[in-house]
Amino acid sequence: MLSEMHVVEENRNITIGEQTVSPGEDKLLSISIDRLPTGTLIDIPIFVFNAKKPGPTILVQAGLHGDEINGIEMVRRMLAEKRFNVTKGAVIAVPILNIFGFIHFSRDVPDGKDVNRSFPGTKNGSMASRMAYHYMAEIMGQIDFVIDLHTGGGQRHNFPQIRYTAEDAQSAMLAEVFNAPISFSSKLIKGSFRNAAYRMNTPTIVFEAGESMRFDDYSILEGMQGILNILEHFGMISNSEPKYGERNKTVHLKSRRWLRAPTAGMFIPKITNGNEITKGQILGILTDTFAKQTKQIKAPFDGYVFCINHQAVVNQGEALFHVGMV
Ligand SMILES: [Zn+2]
Predict the structure, then answer these.
(1) CA 19 to ligand 1 center in whole angstroms
(2) What would you report as the CA-atom Rg of the chain, rounded to the nearest whole angstrom?
(3) Using an 8 Å Cβ cutoff, are 94 and 168 in contact?
(4) Could you read off the pLDDT of 227-261 as tens digits, one per residue?
């Protein structure tokens, strides 16, 4: 009978370039960006998982900084373990945004520009600016939320942490749901992806975990679990088992401070990243090479250490620890 029939609403199509992914389809697409000087075309691979049932479209992206490989591994493992095969809404997964940086073991693109300072970009600008432009034009209009995966820059090791935008209540909510070991709001940086997404009213959280060019299994598992938490929260996955990790509530940091090297020397940390600290506690030492002078780096307040510089030889003023107060 007609009265008993109802129209089953479908999820929307996702179109990137000339390619469309209909509800119920999974596809590997790509955005063509530029050529290498040898003529080889470089494109950004984009996995689209579009469920039949309507729901939010979530973008999970890694490798915006080409040398920050933990996020790339998170996406790879979740693809291999079919954790993006959602039953509602859609996941767009970008394992390596900055392909050029990745193949050069570099944060930046070959002309030295940082893609994450080049948003929203211009069509005919520098390579970084054009990558940002195409990415925004092809993808961002179709996205409801973004999870942007990073690590500490250089040899700075970030304890798994979520950064959200204080002015955007939805990004604060996403941070809560992701439930990383540590969360805090941080200000928007000019030219960053998060800033451009904020201007498009697309809530974004940045997950920072581990350091560049090094796999850190704990960081990888924390990130994968956070992504699962978000997919589960929006009812996009029917089965969130097996879990990658278990934790109590995220620790919110209210204020943060960098502790810098009072002098040049060899830096020897005396604390494990992510640990609680008490005011006056020795976090590390800075020493000359002749056993003549040693300086202690002490905790300025009670709180947590959530970033440690793993560089052994440092210059005066270099950031050694990032510490925060609850
Ligand atoms: Zn980064």
Answers:
(1) 29
(2) 21
(3) no
(4) 999 999 999 998 888 999 888 899 999 999 999 99
The CA-atom distances, in angstroms, between 10 and each of 1, 7, 23, 69, 273 are 22, 9, 7, 36, 46
Distance 11 CA to ligand 1 centre (A): 32
Q: pLDDT digit string (tens) for 149-196?
A: 999 999 999 999 999 999 999 999 999 999 999 999 999 999 999 999
120 C-alpha to ligand 1 centroid (Å): 17
Name the pTM for this structure: 0.95
Distance 204 CA to ligand 1 centre (A): 14
Domain range annotation of the chain:
2-233, 253-325
Q: What is the pLDDT of residues 105-123, one digit of tens each?
A: 999 998 899 999 999 999 9
Spacing, Cα 54 to ligand 1 middle (Å): 32
> Per-residue pLDDT tens for 279-321?
999 999 999 999 899 999 999 999 999 999 999 999 999 999 9
- Topology adopted by domain 2-233: Aminopeptidase (3.40.630)
| Fold (CATH) for 253-325 | OB fold (Dihydrolipoamide Acetyltransferase, E2P) (2.40.50)
